[in-house]
């Protein structure tokens, strides 16, 4: 389990608190959404969860232990908590897709047969087998996103952080990512998603945490959080369309588009 205990953080360059007094429990086996307007501190919080940044006060804990910031400890942490960055080019280094995905495993000195098996599984999970033999520069943005996700999955870390997984994708690409997320969740992984795609968060997350100007406004069950109209407005966000339909048209509170369409 990944959690933060009253963490606050400011960047050296400016003297303002970017995050203040954040206590969050990211429960194992659950999908947690992290939402907030631009600049509310979501990416910074991800960097703190990964140990890339260190809080000024408070602590981040993995498996009940406060993070240690030595190289070796962080190396261990990466095998438990992995991230998919918003921009796949930040994450992909090789032109050969299979080599790129295999990189971290070969770095660990893993047996080559096991490397190939894991790469194959990760490619299947993100539905990328059919383009896996093309050079990376021939791929679309959406395909690169899927390769980046495969690169994070291959380590088989129990916890995966995804920063804006659907940003820049067309409707089909977005739907593919939703299906991939559902497959990852079905494997029992702990998933944390930071996104401005409110409808995605509503559809796939069990719990949601709302950040506003570096503070945690609320945290809890997805539907309960999104039903709080004033709070969502205060955070500079909008409610998911299924929640608006419920509040404005007095329809049942559907969780998924297909539940509404099939009703
Ligand atoms: N490297 C940095 N140095 C100084 N300030 C930074 C740095 N990175 C982010 N900030 C500031 O920290 C605050 C939070 O930024 P952050 O990127 O964490 O927010 P965010 O919620 O992820 O935003 P967005 O939704 O736009 O991606 C902002 O005021 C931003 O200007």
UniProtKB/TrEMBL annotation:
Output the GO biological process annotations, alphabetical, semicolon-separated: cobalt ion transport
Q: What is its main location?
A: membrane
Q: Report domain ABC transporter positions.
A: 2-238
Matches recorded under PANTHER family: ENERGY-COUPLING FACTOR TRANSPORTER ATP-BINDING PROTEIN ECFA1, HEAVY METAL TRANSPORTER
| Membrane-topology annotation of the record | Peripheral membrane protein
Q: Mind listing the GO molecular function terms for this protein?
A: ATP binding; ATP hydrolysis activity; ATPase-coupled transmembrane transporter activity
Q: Establish whether keyword Nucleotide-binding is in the entry.
A: yes
Q: Mind telling me what this protein is named?
A: ABC transporter ATP-binding protein
Q: Which keywords appear in this protein's UniProt record, sorted alphabetically?
A: ATP-binding, Cell membrane, Membrane, Nucleotide-binding, Translocase, Transport
Q: What is the lineage of its organism?
A: Bacteria, Pseudomonadati, Pseudomonadota, Gammaproteobacteria, Pseudomonadales
Q: Where in the cell is it found?
A: Cell membrane
Q: Which family does it belong to?
A: Belongs to the ABC transporter superfamily.
SMART domains per the record? AAA
Q: Which GO terms describe its cellular component?
A: ATP-binding cassette (ABC) transporter complex
Q: What is the source species?
A: Entomomonas moraniae
Role, per record: Part of an ABC transporter complex. Responsible for energy coupling to the transport system.
């Amino acid at each position: 389990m990944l959690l933060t205990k009253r963490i606050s953080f400011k960047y050296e360059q400016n003297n303002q608190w970017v995050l203040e007094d954040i206590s969050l429990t990211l429960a194992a086996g659950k999908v947690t959404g992290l939402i907030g307007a631009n600049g509310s501190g979501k990416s910074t919080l991800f960097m703190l969860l990964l140990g890339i940044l260190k809080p000024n006060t408070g602590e981040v804990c993995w498996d009940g232990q406060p993070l240690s910031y030595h190289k070796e400890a962080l190396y261990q942490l990466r095998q438990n908590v992995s991230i998919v960055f918003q921009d796949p080019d930040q994450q992909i280094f090789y032109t050969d897709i299979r080599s790129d995905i295999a990189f971290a495993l070969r770095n660990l000195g893993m047996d080559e047969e096991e490397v190939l098996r894991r790469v194959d599984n990760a490619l299947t999970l993100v539905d990328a087998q059919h383009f896996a033999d093309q050079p990376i520069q021939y791929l679309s943005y959406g395909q690169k996103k899927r390769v980046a996700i495969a690169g994070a999955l291959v380590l088989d870390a129990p916890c995966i952080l995804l920063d804006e997984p659907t940003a820049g994708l067309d409707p089909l690409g977005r739907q593919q990512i939703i299906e991939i997320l559902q497959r990852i969740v079905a494997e029992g992984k702990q998933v944390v998603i930071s996104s401005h795609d409110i409808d995605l968060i509503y559809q796939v997350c069990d719990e949601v945490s709302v950040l506003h100007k570096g503070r945690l406004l609320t945290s809890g069950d997805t539907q309960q959080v999104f039903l709080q109209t004033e709070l969502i407005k205060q955070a500079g966000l909008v409610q998911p369309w299924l929640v608006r339909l419920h509040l404005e048209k007095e329809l049942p509170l559907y969780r998924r588009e297909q539940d509404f369409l099939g009703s």
